[in-house]
Amino acid sequence: MGRHSNRNNSNRGSNCCNNGNRVSPEEVETVVEPTKTIVNTTTSRRVVRHVRPTNIINVNREIVRNEYFYPTTERNVNETVVENYDCGTDINNPNCRRRR
Q1: pTM of model > 0.90
Q2: Span 5-25, mean pLDDT?
Q3: Fewer CB atoms near the end CB (10 Å): N or C, the chain?
């Protein structure tokens, strides 16, 4: 990017003076300088909230321990028959099926 010169006459001078006399507009030389670039930066700040919801499931577990006993004696034979049924979740309206 160099200078660009626009001359109307080979005489160099200014609008001021040439041996005490005003210079006519035909003798004015115009020099265009390269463009100066000024960068103005405006900074703004903002807050971004990140909400990460958490779902907590509380499980209440009950463990039922079934203990089976088969008592016998030498004199008597006791027979115990166990039948297991799956009756669903509604105790007031059971739908029982035999388990294998």
Answers
A1: no
A2: 54
A3: C
